[in-house]
Each structure stands twice: as C-alpha cells, then as structure tokens.
Design brief:
- The chain is α/β, with parallel strands linked by helices.
- It is built from 21 helices and 15 strands.
C-alpha cells in the first residue's frame, strides 16, 4: 500500500510538505503524531489522527504516538479561545496509560516487527531541561518574528481571546518543535503528522531541525473534520463522543454514527473505516437506489463500533436500538445494563414511584394515573388497557385489575411504560 495514495482517495490530506512522498518511497520512515492527554480517554475528534497512524503502520512505516505530557501542562493556543487547565504529573501518567490501552486497538505495539508502534511522552525529555538550556539550545534558533507570524498566535493576539496570549502558550510552538528535534535525534523520526490546525507548530519543528542540525524532515496534516451542515463534528448536546464506554456507552456511540447525514456518511466511511474504495462505491450505489434503508449509515455505525468497542457491543447496540420499535423486546429490555437503558430512554418523561409500595404491589390503574401522570385519569387508563394499548416492560397488559410489584423492576430500579405506539415513560423506584 502507498500511504499518500491511500490517504488521498480517502480525503485525509490537507497539507503536505514537498518531498514527503519521495521520503516514504525511499525507506521505512518513522512518523509521530501528538495526542493531548488532558483526559483519560480519546474522543472521536482524535480518530482521524489515529487512523492516519494506523494507515501509516499498515503501509510498512513506523508510527510514534506522542502523549503531550509537557505540552499538556501548558496548553496549545491553536484553535482555542481560552487557556487550558494545567494538569499534574500523576493525572498525566494515568491518562497516558488509558490512552495507550485505547490505541492498542488500532496500532501494533507488541510484536517484533521493525515498524511496531511506540508510545512516547514529551514530559520525559522536557522535565529536566533548565530554562537557561532551553533558551540557549532551542530559543536562539527561532526568531520572535517567525513565531509571531503563526496563525494560531495572530488569532489570539487579534482579539479572539479575552485575555490575550500568555507567555506560557506563546512558547508552545517551541516546545513542540523541541519534540520533533528530540525524536529526529533519538528515533530518526523524519515526519510529523497532525490536524491542519497544527501546521504552524509542525513547521516550527521542521525549521528548528533545519537551522540547528541541517536535517531534512517532512510534515503532513489531515483536514479538520466537519459536518455537511457546518456544525462541529463529534459534539452532541451532552458533549464529546468518547471512545471509553464509561463516558459514552457503546449504544450511544453506535447511535451517533447511525444518525449522521447521507453526505457525511459517505465521507466518514472513507475516513473512519478501512473499507476499500470499491466497497464504499458499492454502498453509495446501494444507498442511491434505496436511501430509506440507510445502508451507508448502518455500515458506518457497524464498522466504527466494532473497531472501537467489539462485535458483541455492536450486536447489543443494534438490539437495544430495536427495543423502542419492537413489540417483542421484553427479554432484550431485561438484559440491558443500566447505562444503556438510560441512554435508550434519554429524554422520555420520568416519574418517581415508591419502592416500598411496589414491594406490596400497586394496582396498575393507580400506577398509571395516581402515582404517576402517564394518564390523566383512571378511566382513560382503564379504557386503553382494555384496548391493548398499554405495555409494561414491553409486555402488553389487558387486565385493568392487574397489580404491579417489585418483580417488574428492571435492574431493581426502573419500570418502562408504553402508552400507544409512540409514548414512552420511565418509572424510577426510590
């Protein structure tokens, strides 16, 4: 496989330094990509960079995943309007281990292959350097004029940030340049990968290597991923879509990809899966013939969920997705973990009921119209129950004299009520 050709047809190249393709054709090349360690999980905003590293390794080259322990303590001004919170070392180390575990699903860190991936942390080579040494060995090679010309600096100075640009953040590009220099010297790293917002920082590193050592290095960036409607990719009302199941459940992760637009689905299949050009073109054709079946979104959601989580998690997410619309989903509903249950019924009306009263039992009509407001009156509730329009935990009840007790609790805490085809309610026993 040719790395540049592969990324080109997938729409994953934004800017590339001249000579990059020739360097990759010449020899197995080492490249690094920096990852912000300010959380103990990656989110899908990181995925494009991670996929670049995986393509790089699949094409026979050696990827380095750099966790920015030192730079994470400072904060990168690129694309930011406010300075970051600074992290302590213990938090950074914890985050690094968690991130490596996630990256292991994408990259081979453990084999004997010459191009096996490595994880490095710039805190390790930055923590012991003195300010005087840094100023003399690094700072003297890059002029303030050069640093001031960077877009990331100009935007912050021209009013995008309330408090301007701190000296700490101003030095960020020098620190990132120092990373490239160190990895060039210690790991023979000749290429830096990143998002297009990192171009200024990356070129500072290549300029530092050229001025200090006369070395020739290269750079390649991927575009920042956007949505077709101009909205921000990877953000939902509840925040980031995380790769860690504790922060974003596999069900919610699957739903994110399933609900992207047609235009985005085709683009995301190229960027976030390893499907071939022919496979994607076939899916596009199938989608054009029957867009209502949404084959693009379904395949995208499957590929990414299996890659990030597992086949089992994907199957569970599909089953969970069908619960709302199926009349025979009682067993599937009972098998759900609490987080997935809450995700499925996110936004539906909730009512509190007494756990103590449920132990002795609550008459169904009282539960529906007195203890909760699922129905405005017992008479209306009775009529709909007798007509077969009420389900408790996806099981139809037609006897208005039925009594509901704690045996009905899902996970010892919840009862799902469905009124008609589309009205769902969640009762929470407290």
């Amino acid at each position: 496989m040719n790395f540049i050709e592969e990324l080109t047809w997938r729409g994953m190249i934004h800017t590339m330094m001249p000579g990059t393709e020739e360097q990759l054709a010449k020899e197995m090349t080492t490249a690094y990509l920096g990852i912000d360690p300010t959380a103990d999980s990656l989110h899908i905003g990181h995925l494009c960079g991670v996929m670049m590293l995986r393509h790089f390794q699949r094409c026979g080259h050696k990827p380095l995943a750099l966790v920015g322990g030192a730079t994470g303590m400072i904060g990168d001004p690129s694309g930011k309007s406010a300075e970051r919170n600074l992290l302590d070392e213990a938090t950074l180390r914890h985050n690094q281990e968690a991130i490596k575990k996630q990256l292991s699903k994408f990259l081979d860190f453990d084999s004997d292959a010459p191009n096996r991936a490595e994880m490095v942390n710039n805190y390790d080579w930055t923590k012991d350097i003195t300010f005087l040494d840094f100023a003399r060995e690094i700072g003297k090679h890059i002029t303030v004029n050069y640093m001031m010309a960077k877009d990331s600096v100009q935007k912050r100075l021209n009013g995008e940030a309330r408090d301007g640009l701190s000296f700490t953040e101003f030095t960020y590009q020098l620190l990132q340049g120092f990373d490239f220099l160190h990895l060039y010297q210690e790991k023979k790293c000749k290429l830096q990968l990143g998002g297009s917002d990192q171009w200024g920082n990356i070129t500072t590193g290549s300029e530092l290597i050229r001025r200090k050592l006369g070395g020739e290095v290269y750079a390649l960036t991927c575009p920042l991923i956007t949505k077709a409607d101009g909205g921000k990719f990877g953000k939902t009302e509840s925040g980031n879509v995380w790769l860690d199941a504790h922060y974003t459940s596999p069900y919610k992760f699957y739903q994110f990809w399933l609900n992207v637009s047609d235009a985005d689905a085709e683009k995301y299949l190229k960027i976030f899966t390893f499907l071939s050009k022919d496979e994607i073109e076939a899916l596009v054709k199938e989608h054009a013939e029957n867009p209502g079946a949404r084959p693009l979104q379904k395949r995208l959601a499957k590929e990414v969920t299996v890659m990030v989580h597992s086949e089992k998690d994907y199957q569970a997410a599909v089953e969970a997705s069908q619960i709302l619309f199926s009349n025979n989903a009682g067993d599937a509903l009972k098998a759900l973990d609490e987080q997935t249950l809450l995700d499925i019924f996110d936004g539906v009306p909730r009512f509190s009921v007494s756990k103590v009263e449920l132990e002795t039992g609550i008459p169904l009509l009282d539960l529906l119209a007195v203890k909760t407001q699922v129905f405005p009156s017992k008479g209306e509730a009775r009529k709909m129950v007798q007509g077969g329009g009420v389900s408790v935990n996806k099981e139809k009840l037609t006897d208005p004299t039925a009594v509901i007790n704690s045996d009905a609790l899902l996970g010892g805490k919840y009862i799902h009520i469905q009124r008609g085809k589309k009205n769902h309610y969640l009762l929470v026993a407290e």
